[in-house]
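Thread title: Can someone regenerate the structure for this chain?

I was given the following input by a collaborator and told the matching structure tokens would be attached. They weren't. Posting the sequence so someone can regenerate them.
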Amino acid sequence: MLNLCLSREEFPQWLKKQPCKRKVDEIILHHTWRPTMAQYKGEQTIKSIQQYHISQGWKDIGYHFLIAPDGNIWAGRPVEEIGAHTRGRNTSSIGVCLIGNFDEEEMTDAQEKSLIVVLRALLHRFKLQTSNINFHRDYAPYKSCPGLKLDKEAVRSSVEGAEEESLLNADDAISHPDVPAWATDAVKWALSTGIVKGTAKGKIEGYRPATRAEVIVMLHRLFQLISKGSS
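Best answer:
Regenerated them for you:
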């Protein structure tokens, strides 16, 4: 499964299908330190980490998931198998590793969004709370892992506050207009009638997939509009 690379959109549904009979009560966050973000070379980097872990006497890569600077999510050791990432805490934990040296580097936006998606999906899958997210250095005080630039409470808060955020694919709003040209007239009409409403920042986020709840709300508004017109 090591060569399996997932997008943010794919990960939550994929995770739901993964078997796991062991008890999981904690998610532990790491960074690679080396390789750094600049040294990341896709699958080659992931396989190099695996080979290094095997050379240490482990049966496979120690982490369950690795998150790359480009936002890609790499599946490592299967979640049903005990990892090898935190001494004394492997039996009932999931190891998530950010690729980079976060003593010195900053996460990219794509990497941070993928981290939030992965953590949220894992919390939901194993019925955990954000208080169950911990850092490697919590159990190895001689280490800075997952990096001095990361704060545990800030990570937990980001996961909690992400409920209403759009966590899109790596090329998200940077390469997508808020409203595609072909949809401009329809969006203007939907706004004027109240069928859709913009965000607090005045955006439509036309590139973001709608949730079922959002579709239901829009259908309800449309039904109300039709009812008013026929009365």
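The beta strands are 5-6, 26-31, 65-67, 73-75, 93-98, 133-135.
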